[in-house]
Design brief:
The complex is a heterodimer of chains A (279) and B (347). Chain A has helices spanning 66-72, 103-109, 125-135, 143-153, 157-160, 173-186, 203-216, 229-235, 258-263, 268-274; strands spanning 26-37, 40-51, 55-59, 83-91, 94-95, 110-113, 191-195, 221-225, 238-243, 251-257. Chain A is an alpha/beta fold and 279 residues long. In chain A, helix 7 (203-216) links the parallel strand 7 and strand 8. The longest helix of chain A has 14 residues, at 173-186. The chains are: A alpha/beta (279), B mainly alpha (347).
């Protein structure tokens, strides 16, 4: 069954199942999100709430649209020329796709960490941490303190405090990824989106990053895409399971507290996936 | 229980057989074709052909002996690469040699600083110099760089970063421009500014003609290097809340810094030896003129062009020296760029 932008209503999106126990006020919410690449509908009717100061994990097999979805949450999706979407992303009650909203402001409040570590190679470690401020022309009176604070939050300070003037390329992959996290934290976003932040890291670095995520969630809302079930269980209070079957667009099969999704899934496909029977 | 361990490079060890093989494959074909040529069996053309063919065969055989069937392709390839190297080496070497050989005669310190004001083509060596032409070339090329570098980088940014609607048109225009014969660039400036009376002959006109030639080289090279900047970095910068302009100025351009210096250099190298654009624009001068906006100016290529056409030996020698100086100037520019782009200060 093929679906294009004009006949999207043909596809009957199954209702998202879940325990519905997310009653707290959401800081961010996606409402009826449909996403296209050219004529191809890749995500259908995603409704997710992200409560303040919580970690939500997005899980699901490859190609189900998790990464695409997370990129709609801070308007990175529109950078792909063929991209289109329908629906809303409410951030503190306002649609980030509203006609008067500047995407630059959105991305300042909703930061992002990518799958591959991507520090700026032409900058030193210190400059990388401060790059967000300089890129967005934000003044900071005490840059040295901010560098220490951000690097400490990202769990990197002790390893690099003596060589802040080295280029970012001199760090290991795991350190580079934590540097990218520090860079995102330096602009003090309200929400941090992480697209498989640990997929290129060794187990040790992964644990460090997870520790960082847990600490961040005390004052920040985190959304993390992961292929690692254990990771989702370790860091996330909430989990959403994405699936796309038979070339149909992806949708959210089940969404709820992580404990419920993993221990008592409502949908059999969720239990099959989290127990490693497919995907 | 002390064991002595010596570091070695087993992958670099060669047996005497290996050396024998190399020597045999590189001398046997030469010997065979030489004998064939001297004994009159083959004409020089055919002997040359025999040399090439036998060299390739010898390469294959050497590979076969050394590594069996799998080595044949390797051996032939090494032979072909050797040929290419030798061909380029001989051509470049003979150019360099003739410039060095003929150019060293007149090259003295005085030659670099004096001008040609009181010199005739027959004046003996030891009098006069190319100081005026050297300064002229430096001034004209600098102005041309100042003009074409910003425009060239802006063009590349438009093509790779802005990706505007006229991207394809701009791209093909730049491509078409790179095919413009240098004499046309000179004639264009001549017709537009000099015949029409907007300007007299002067160094700036030459710089304008040069920048027409430089622009496509700078723009295309800059385009290539900007393409090499990973998209990850652009995404990262955008996700941090940067505007498009900030992404370009703070992330893309600094990341491509070394490549942009290379683009500039290729542009300079493209024009620094060009004579045709100058013939119609700077007029030439025998005295030192540092003002690009008034009166004729001298430049090295024009000086060489005029000098080698003289029937007088001293003037020809001076022209060859000027060519040598031009070569050295290019060498200095390139070494400088290498030095500037190498990451010295950071580890």
């Amino acid at each position: 069954m093929t679906i294009n932008s004009t006949e999207s209503s043909v596809f009957q999106v199954p209702k998202t199942k879940g325990t519905g126990s997310i009653t707290t006020d959401a800081v961010m919410e996606s409402v009826g999100m449909y996403v296209w690449f050219g004529p191809r509908l890749v995500l259908a009717d995603v409704n997710l709430k992200f409560p303040a100061n919580s970690v939500t994990a997005l899980i699901g097999p490859s190609g189900c649209g998790k990464s695409t979805f997370i990129r709609t949450l801070n308007r990175m999706h529109e950078l792909i020329p063929s991209a289109a979407l329908a629906g809303q992303v409410l951030f503190e009650g306002n649609d980030i796709y509203g006609p008067t909203v500047n995407p630059v402001d959105v991305r300042l409040r909703i930061g992002m960490v990518f799958q591959k570590p991507n520090p700026f190679p032409a900058m030193t470690i210190e400059e990388n941490v401060l790059s967000g401020l300089r890129l967005a022309k934000i003044k900071n009176e005490k840059p040295a303190e901010l560098v220490e604070k951000s690097l400490t939050q990202a769990g990197l300070w002790n390893e690099v405090k003596d060589r802040l003037g080295n280029t970012a390329g001199s760090l290991s992959g795991g350190q580079q990824q934590r540097l990218c996290i520090a860079r995102s934290l330096a602009v003090n976003p309200n929400v941090l989106l992480m697209d498989e932040p640990c997929s290129a890291l060794d187990p040790g670095s992964t644990l460090r990053v997870e520790e960082t995520i847990r600490e961040l969630s005390e004052f920040m809302t985190v959304v993390i895409v992961t292929h690692n079930m254990q990771q989702a269980q370790r860091v996330a209070q909430f989990t959403a399971f994405f699936l796309s079957e038979d070339n149909n667009p992806g949708y959210v099969v089940e969404h709820g507290p992580t404990v419920d999704v993993f221990a008592n899934p409502i949908d059999t496909r969720t239990s099959d996936y989290v127990n490693g029977r497919f995907g | 229980m002390n064991r002595t361990v010596t570091a070695s490079k087993p992958w670099k060890q060669r047996t005497s057989n290996d050396y024998l093989l190399v020597i045999a494959t590189s001398t046997l074909p030469m010997l065979v074709s030489y004998v064939a040529l001297k004994s009159g069996i083959l004409s020089p053309m055919l002997a040359g052909l025999l040399f090439i063919v036998s060299q390739i065969v010898a390469g294959g055989v050497a590979g076969l002996i050394h590594r069996g069937k799998r080595g044949v392709g390797d051996g032939i390839l090494v032979s072909l690469i050797g040929f290419s190297l030798a061909t380029i080496g001989i051509i470049m070497g003979s150019v360099l040699w003739s410039v060095l050989y003929k150019g060293l005669e007149a090259l003295k310190f005085q030659f670099l600083i004096q001008n040609n004001e009181y010199i005739t083509p027959t004046s003996p060596l030891g009098y006069g110099g190319i100081g005026h032409a050297l300064l002229g070339t430096i001034i004209i090329v600098s102005i041309a760089t100042l003009i074409s570098l910003p425009i060239g980088i802006a063009t590349a940014v438009y093509i790779t970063e802005v990706r505007g609607r006229s991207k394809v048109i701009v791209q093909s225009l730049v491509q078409a421009m790179s095919g413009v014969p240098s004499v046309v660039a000179g004639l264009f400036i001549y017709a537009t500014f000099i015949i029409s009376g907007v300007s007299a002959y002067n160094g700036f006109m030459g710089a304008l003609a040069y920048s027409i030639l430089m622009l496509p080289t700078v723009a295309r090279t800059a385009e290539e290097v900007l393409r090499l900047v990973p998209d990850d970095l652009r995404s990262a910068a955008l996700a941090l809340g940067a505007s498009r302009a900030r992404v370009v100025s703070m992330v893309v351009l600094p990341t491509a810094k070394a490549g942009l210096v290379t683009a500039t250099l290729l542009g300079i190298a493209r024009v620094i030896g060009e004579t045709a654009p100058l013939v119609f624009t700077i007029f030439g001068s025998a005295r030192t003129n540092l003002n690009p906006f008034s009166d004729g100016m001298a430049a090295l290529p024009l000086y060489i062009f005029n000098g080698v056409r003289q029937p007088f030996a001293p003037e020809q020698a001076r022209a060859y020296s000027a060519a040598l100086v031009l070569l050295i100037l290019v060498l200095i520019v390139f070494s400088l760029a290498r030095f500037l782009t190498s990451d010295r200060k950071r580890k």
